[in-house]
Amino acid sequence: MTERLRQRTLPAPMVPDKKILVIIPAFNEEASIGGVISLVRKHAPGADIVVVNDGSSDRTGAVAEGLGVTVLNHIYNLGIGATMQTGYKYALRRGYDIAVQVDGDGQHPADQIIDLVRPVAEGKAEMVVGSRFLGMGEYRPSIARSAGMVFFSRLVSAIIRERMTDTTSGFRAAGRSCIEFFSSRYPDDYPEVEALVLLHKKGFRVMEVPVEMAKRAGGRSSITPMKSVYYMAKVLLAILVDLIKRA
After folding, report:
1. What are the beta bridge partners of residue 72?
2. What angle (nearest 5°) sits at the alpha carbon of residue 9, between those of residues 7 and 10?
3. pLDDT one-digit tens code per residue, 200-215
4. pLDDT (tens digit, 9 = 90+) per residue, 112-135?
5. pLDDT tens column, 148-161
6. d(Cα 59, Cα 53) in Å, to the nearest integer?
7. Cβ atoms of 169 and 127 closer than 8 Å
8. Pairing mode, if any, of strands 20-26 and 48-54?
9. What is this structure's pTM?
């Protein structure tokens, strides 16, 4: 991992008394990363941005560096779990109070970052997840993907004994204690669902807020039908192992 410190911080803070970092995990997002950075700067003033370039073979890292943000480069593609853990380690070492995940494909609406940050800043939760199924927007996944989403939402809701509607959403904000926890432990592949179970076991408070997500601004999703089957089996097994382990 290499790091180039060319951080640019806008003057007007989004939450005055909190140090906020927007983590953008990116793999081959050359077409969209510039637009994502511009929108985050516009709608999350005062927040710092770090792009974790997960071994992209295109110009994702170069485009981000050209826009003056900090870029952490994985030499090889390690997956979203390792990519987010790199971001959380960076956030911990530099003393950020809140870390927000905004994917590099343009689906996460930067103008709604404040909706995720506010409950964390006010102490209402340690993790806030943006849900596509709480009444905003018209997001309609495929039948197969919808079945998986419903299955995991019901499973996680039963485990944590609270209603969760969008356990696969990666649009989320983490407070300082979650940043510290995820810096030392974060699921490897397809980590969103398992991360919620781990937080529950550690006693963290998790809540959802409604968001309206957009379509990809560029690039291609890495999720294929075969990977979806693998995803469901792996995540289910990981959750079972997590529940068996001691907290």
Report:
1. 3, 52
2. 150
3. 999 999 999 999 987 6
4. 999 999 999 999 999 999 999 987
5. 888 889 999 999 88
6. 10
7. no
8. parallel
9. 0.87
Tokens describing residue 237 = 């097994």
Quote the CA–CA distance of 85 and 80 in Å, as a whole number: 8
Look up residue 240 and give its two tokens: 């079972």
- Whether 39 and 105 have beta carbons less than 8 Å apart is answered as no
Rounded to the nearest 10 degrees, the angle between the axes of helix 192-201 and helix 176-184 is 110
Neighbours of 65 (CB within 10 A): 17
Decide: 113 and 20 in contact? Cβ < 8 Å. no
Residue 206, beta-bridge partner list: 127
Residues 6 or more apart in contact with residue 107 via CB below 8 angstroms: 171, 213, 214, 215, 216, 217
> pLDDT tens across 86-105, in order?
999 999 999 999 999 999 99
Question: Other C-beta atoms within 10 Å of 203: how many?
Answer: 9
Residue with tokens 């510290």: 180
